[in-house]
């Protein structure tokens, strides 16, 4: 593998990590080199702002002519809120473009081919795995044309999410609840059913220091919400989707620029997503208690025998205070 661009790509990846997450756009960093010297660098600061390549070109000015651009994602080749970065690089006189990840978005891709056809040398695949991991949810959503779905639930060791009298706060401890806040912060939308919204009156907000952008709160179901419930306040945007169709829900969120969905329940909504084969990850918080009855964590009427079970691969098992956190992905 060509090692000439590793240091510059490391810097570009560091730049990209400054980009907001979540955001409708991918996280991208760009470094411009002239005779081994950094003459410009930039990262994308969110939807509607200049792309990383444009930021770096502004810093470099006239020095960009004949330089090398090292960028974590294939320069876009379409006109959206901003112009195509492939054209901006060529127009600035960039002689070589080094790319980590090819763009999986069919609307924006094509920059590599366009640059080659216009006399610019292109090197691809440098630190591709790291660049792809930086935009894992965005990449998934571009390939599948829907958001990635992570179902989070809390339950007792015998799989109950509430006691027989309906009480459920709090099954898990403070450490597990902090992990939930971190998980919510990574997502573009938090989704619950109307049953959970009416029974628990949740806030569904991220309560962490420094968080300025709240995920979209999504309530799925036909019943309306009372005007005085927490989901009707102005602490975060709320969308009520009057449907029971998980695919319809994800399509609506996809067109709103959501790439990762945090599915919090309840058990029937989670079961509907499982039955539709639309749960990609599971984060289960298991409390060291037995309830012996009460509400099950999930209800899926399509599973009537063991051979119909939904199978997942465990990625990680950790302890959060007294509780166990299991992270798994769909086979």
From TrEMBL:
The protein's required cofactors: Zn(2+)
Q: In which pathway does it act?
A: Cofactor biosynthesis; riboflavin biosynthesis; 5-amino-6-(D-ribitylamino)uracil from GTP: step 3/4; Cofactor biosynthesis; riboflavin biosynthesis; 5-amino-6-(D-ribitylamino)uracil from GTP: step 2/4
One Pfam family from the record: dCMP_cyt_deam_1
Give the record's cofactor note, including how many are bound. Binds 1 zinc ion.
Boundaries of each CMP/dCMP-type deaminase domain copy?
3-123
Do you know which SUPFAM superfamilies this protein is assigned to? Cytidine deaminase-like (SSF53927), Dihydrofolate reductase-like (SSF53597)
What keyword terms does UniProt attach to this protein? Hydrolase, Metal-binding, Multifunctional enzyme, NADP, Oxidoreductase, Riboflavin biosynthesis, Zinc
Q: Which InterPro entries match?
A: APOBEC/CMP_deaminase_Zn-bd, CMP_dCMP_dom, Cytidine_deaminase-like, DHFR-like_dom_sf, Eubact_RibD, RibDG_C, Riboflavin_Biosynth_HTPR
Q: What does this protein do?
A: Converts 2,5-diamino-6-(ribosylamino)-4(3h)-pyrimidinone 5'-phosphate into 5-amino-6-(ribosylamino)-2,4(1h,3h)-pyrimidinedione 5'-phosphate.
UniProt lists the family membership as follows: In the C-terminal section; belongs to the HTP reductase family. In the N-terminal section; belongs to the cytidine and deoxycytidylate deaminase family.
Descriptive protein name = Riboflavin biosynthesis protein RibD
Q: From which source organism is this entry?
A: Cutibacterium namnetense
């Amino acid at each position: 593998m060509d090692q000439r661009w590793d240091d510059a790509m490391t810097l570009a990846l560091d730049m990209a990590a400054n980009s907001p997450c979540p955001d409708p756009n991918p996280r991208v960093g760009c470094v411009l080199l002239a005779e081994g010297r950094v003459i410009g660098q930039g990262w994308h600061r969110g939807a509607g702002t200049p792309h990383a390549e444009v930021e770096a070109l502004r810093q470099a000015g006239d020095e960009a002519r004949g330089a090398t651009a090292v960028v974590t994602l294939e320069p876009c080749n379409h006109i959206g809120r901003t112009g195509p970065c492939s054209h901006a690089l060529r127009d600035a006189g960039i002689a070589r473009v080094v790319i980590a990840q090819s763009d999986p978005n069919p609307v924006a891709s094509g920059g590599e081919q366009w640059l080659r056809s216009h006399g610019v040398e292109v090197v691809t695949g440098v630190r591709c795995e790291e660049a792809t991991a930086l935009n894992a949810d965005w990449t998934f959503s571009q390939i599948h044309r829907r958001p990635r779905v992570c179902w989070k639930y809390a339950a007792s060791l015998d799989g109950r999410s509430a006691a027989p009298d309906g009480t459920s706060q709090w099954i898990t401890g403070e450490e597990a609840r902090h992990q939930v806040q971190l998980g919510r912060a990574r997502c573009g939308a938090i989704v619950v059913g109307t049953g959970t919204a009416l029974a628990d009156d949740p806030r569904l907000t991220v309560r962490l220091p420094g968080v300025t952008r709240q995920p979209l709160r999504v309530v799925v179901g036909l019943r309306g919400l009372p005007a005085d419930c927490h989901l009707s306040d102005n602490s975060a945007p709320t969308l009520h989707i009057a449907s029971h169709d998980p695919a319809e829900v994800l399509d609506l969120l996809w067109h709103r620029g959501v790439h990762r969905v945090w599915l919090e329940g309840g058990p029937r909504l989670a079961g509907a997503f499982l039955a539709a084969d639309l749960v990609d990850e599971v984060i289960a918080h298991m409390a060291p208690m037995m309830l012996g009855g009460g509400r099950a964590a999930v209800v899926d009427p399509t599973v009537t025998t063991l051979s119909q079970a939904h199978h997942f691969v465990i990625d990680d098992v950790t302890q959060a205070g007294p509780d166990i956190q299991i992270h798994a992905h769909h086979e």
